[in-house]
Amino acid sequence: MTRLERNMSDCAAPLVIGVTGHRDLRGEDVPKLEKLVGGIIEKFRDDSPHTPLTLLSALAEGADRLVARVALELGARLVVPLPMRREIYETDFSTPDSKAEFTELLGRAEPSFELPLLNGATETEIKEHGAPRDCQYEQVGAYIVSHSHLLIALWDGKYRNLVGGTSRVVKFQLEGVPEPYAPPSSPIDTPESGPVYHIVTPRNSNPRTEDEPLTMRRLCPKGYVGEADRFTRICARVDTFNRDLIDQAVLLEREAKMSADYLFPESEVRKLPPPLQSLHKRFAVADTLAIHFQRLTRRTLSLLFILVLLVAISFELYAHLFPTMHWILAVYLIFIAGAYLWINRRAKRHDYQNKHQDYRALAEGTRVQFFWRLAGLELSVADRYLRKQRSELDWICSTIRVWNIPSEIESPASVNPVETEHIRCLELVLRHWVTDQSRFFVKAAKRDHGKLERYEPYVKALLRIGIVVTVVVTLALLVPHPWRHAFFFQGLLCPTLRSDSALARTALL
């Protein structure tokens, strides 16, 4: 892989797959389960060829590890959120082989991290099996649901409503993640999650299942009625973004540095944790693509306006002044064909305007997320962004959410919790975000006002000319017929018709 390809790969938006399931799988079911899981992952790899796959798994025994092994074999990246400190978590694994498998898979993860303790719990409390420890397991399930596009569930299909259990995680995916694991949401909002790929899985403790064992079904969240293809659209838009990264790699290599320096100076970026450096790079890529497609959109509109003007002029010339010059009609048809087939169809096929608007929204959301993290805020932009523009723009929120996974682990405030460092970060936020954006909008307002003042006289002049032409043509049509014929057709407008008065009269009528 070249340096250019590696840079684009680092900025790609991944498709994130979450996993939940039983720990006590039956040994005889494992080959069939691996085949079913592999089929799901291969399907998304084939349907989204430009999109890297990431698996979120807590690496508990059983389902978590089975899916992790299959995903790694198929080239997916593994990210491991741990429900508690590793040493405490490993007490769940009773045999040396289980601990060795956990260590081996954890070593292949990029990255792994521990989630914070909930509700003021202490490590002493979660060392024992009980409510505090169960809440930690439920928290990691909620985290996986919140940051995944889809969930693979190796589950027997029975709802037991046990805290931290598989059925609760599936319920989160289908009905939305509740507090305290997610911010409050409106009861009328559709859950911001994707489908559950449920593989009906017997377990050693209870082999009976709700459906035919070792079969798969697709469950959709509540609110998907009538829009079951929403998830497909999200995957398609993410893959389109990643394809544009590849297609415009040379442009991005040349121009992305300008956007990166505009957001935050390179001298300061080097001092930031790697996750924030990644957010910085991803903003630059999204911003550069937005500017690129903005240029293409404006160029397309300009060409369309010119061609439409030429269409109108050629039509008027043929219809009212030179009806015998049939080549003007051919020119008229050429202009129409150019406007529709060459410009309009091409712009629609490449989706210039939607890409410009989508990538601009993605860049601005990433900008805000970068500075929130720099300020030490643990809020996610995806939970508060574009809430009034759901469905079509869901892919933007999901992309920001998965891009944000590493920065949730490590921010300047967590790495350098001392007060002086935090103050320095806040000063950087004030200088490079608040002050800079204020200066930008003041400058933009003056620029747009200047354009208005420059163009307004031309608009007024054209309006007056249009009124004068309309009045002249109206008066000409009201004058006696012989005079109008002599003046307009024989005298001024169409001297070629003087020798053929009969044709002139026909044209007039």
Unreliable parts: 487-509
How large is the share of residues in beta strands?
Answer: 5-15%
- Please state the second-level CATH architecture of the largest domain: 3-Layer(aba) Sandwich
In angstroms, what is the radius of gyration? 32 Å
Main sheet characteristics: 7 strands, mixed
Secondary structure layout:
Layout: H1 3-11, E1 15-21, H2 30-47, E2 53-56, H3 63-73, E3 77-82, H4 86-89, H5 96-107, E4 112-114, H6 123-127, H7 131-146, E5 150-155, H8 166-175, E6 196-200, E7 216-219, H9 230-247, H10 249-263, H11 266-269, H12 274-321, H13 326-350, H14 352-374, H15 394-403, H16 405-409, H17 412-415, H18 419-478, H19 481-492, H20 501-508
Parallel strand pairs: 1-2, 1-5, 2-3, 3-4, 5-6
Antiparallel strand pairs: 6-7
Key features?
single chain; 509 residues; alpha/beta; Rossmann fold; 3 domains; seven-stranded mixed beta sheet; 20 helices
Q: How would you describe the overall organization of this protein?
A:
It contains 20 helices and seven strands. With 509 residues, it is an alpha/beta fold. It folds into three domains: 3-229, Rossmann fold (3-Layer(aba) Sandwich), CATH 3.40.50.450; 248-415; 451-508, no CATH class. The protein has a seven-stranded mixed sheet with strand order 4-3-2-1-5-6-7, with helices on both faces. Residues 487-509 have low confidence and may be disordered.
